[in-house]
Amino acid sequence: MDKSTQLPLGSGRAQWIDSAKGLGILLIVIGHVYSTITPSILYVYIYAFHVPLFFFISGVTLRPGAGPFASVVAKKVRTLIVPYLWYSMLGYMFYAAGYFLAQHRGIHIQQFDYGLWPPLAGIFYGTIGDGRLINGPLWFVMALFWTFLLGYSINTYIRQKIWQWVAVAVFSGIGLWLAGRVALPFSGIPALSALVFFQAGYSIRFDDWSRSLGSRGHWLLLSVLLLISAFSPVNGFIQFGEGLVGNPWWFMLFAFSGLLSVMVILRRFDGHTGWLAAIGRYSLSIMLIHMLLIKAVKVVLAMVLQTSMDAIDNDIGLGLVVLGLTVVMLIPAVHVMERYLPFTLGKSSALPRSQLARS
């Protein structure tokens, strides 16, 4: 079978792909509720792999040679850059509304200390940090655009697998070496660094080693992966979008152990993860909007309770309130985005009501 038409892990789209996206986006939403200045051990573990997991899954679905390069770029501009622009601008509008409301109420909220200009200019810089991108998770959308184009080009125009991996090693090596040293525009550092995860995801299309392990092999492999992941705190707290990866070798070890453990679990319990797959099918919409809802809930709570955002970030009980309200708000928000605002997601038309209901 030609590689450009071979489907991952057998015929049809495997449910575990959407399930992995569903679990990944849940971890990302939870990871944005509490403070990352003083992260818990659980947060250190989650952040070690949850973003690399998304790049890995994106590689799984890659189809080299799917069309002329120009049409591939145009499609990715429509499905990634267009949503990035819409929801980064929406994020700025949220920020500006909160900024003026806080000034009107005479309340000082540290997050508004950047003023109005840097967050607006930051949209066109495309890299998180120093108030440049208010809707923070959108750095991932920008980075994925470049990672995809690099991965697509390497696997389409370089025929030999060994040279594909050499190219990946060079690009990812540059990204990991520069990580923490400089901040490139358009999320260039994480885009380069993530190429190794993207390529690893693509590579399993041709070697479904998971099926050959058997039940005993699954549990043994999972035990080893979880044992390795238990040591992830030795590399510190990872903030991939900001280029904070600690030691690059430790980073890759713990990222791969975490994302592979997720893959093994989801493949093992594939028949019981339909609810995760349903969430995963809307992972992009959730990625685009969840941080704005979290911030809105926190700002309102800070005003109502007359407390600081930092206090909310570090309070377990208030964090659960924020998480609960965010989840409740996400359901209608995603429905509106998918049903009535498909153009903001780079889609030509809305999903049918029947498909929304089934999902």
Automatic annotation (TrEMBL):
Sequence intervals crossing the membrane: 20-37, 44-64, 84-102, 137-155, 162-180, 186-206, 218-238, 250-270, 282-304, 316-337
Entries under InterPro entries matching the protein: Acyl_transf_3_dom (IPR002656), Nod_factor_acetyltransferase (IPR052734)
Keyword Transmembrane: yes
Protein's name in the database: Fucose 4-O-acetylase-like acetyltransferase
Keywords assigned by UniProt, alphabetized: Membrane, Transmembrane, Transmembrane helix
Origin species: Hydrogenophaga palleronii
Domain (Acyltransferase) ranges: 15-330
Superkingdom of this protein's organism: Bacteria
Keyword Translocase in annotation: no
